[in-house]
Amino acid sequence: MTIRTETIAAAVAKANQTIKRHEQELNAADAKLGDGDTGGMLARVLGKMAEADLSEADPGTALTRLAKAATVATGSSLGTLFATGLLAVGRQAKGRETIEVADLAAFVASARDAMMERGGASLGDKTVLDSLDAIATALQGKTSPTEAADAAAQAAADALNTFRSRPNRIGRARMFGDQTIGIDDPGMLAVMHLAGAIAE
């Protein structure tokens, strides 16, 4: 089965609904480590993405439009990284009428690498990059949409659980050092909710 622009639009709509439900939870998680605005920022970003006109667009163009919408909606570093990842995938999908499920692992890895280059974080720093890395690995060899969605959701949940027992090593949270052990990174928490919602 292939992924079309309509599939992407449906996923964005689902993600938008999900973030609205978890906005305050994400803000509270971020308040322990930063400005306490992760939920609000993601709600703005996904809300603007849900308003984007994806009509008469191939998947690559649709993803690029979504990235531009995300850029307009945010002034935060996480939001900028979000847009960076979408742009990277949009470039990779450029010119395609559809995206194969089997290509998703490479697409997520492309987003991860672009975000890593833009933000300066490394794998193991306890950030959204660690979630994306786990998802990219879990998606390898998956060809069924249901199988891929379930694998991504499980990988995001497992990454959150694994890194909970580790300290944050970048951003404002790094100043708290070992005090961040036992605390969920808000970006990773958001990815878990989003991946879980899409799997549903």
From TrEMBL:
BP terms from Gene Ontology: glycerol catabolic process
GO molecular function terms attached to this record: glycerone kinase activity
GO-annotated cellular components: cytosol
Keywords annotated in UniProt: Kinase, Transferase
Keyword Kinase: yes
Protein name: DhaL domain-containing protein
Pfam families tied to this protein: Dak2
Residues making up the signal peptide according to the UniProt record: none
Stored Gene3D superfamilies: 1.25.40.340
InterPro entries reported for this sequence: DhaL_dom, DhaL_dom_sf, Dihydroxyacetone_Kinase
PANTHER family found in the cross-reference section: TRIOKINASE/FMN CYCLASE, TRIOKINASE_FMN CYCLASE
Organism of provenance: Microvirga vignae
DhaL domain segment(s): 6-200
Superkingdom, natural source: Bacteria
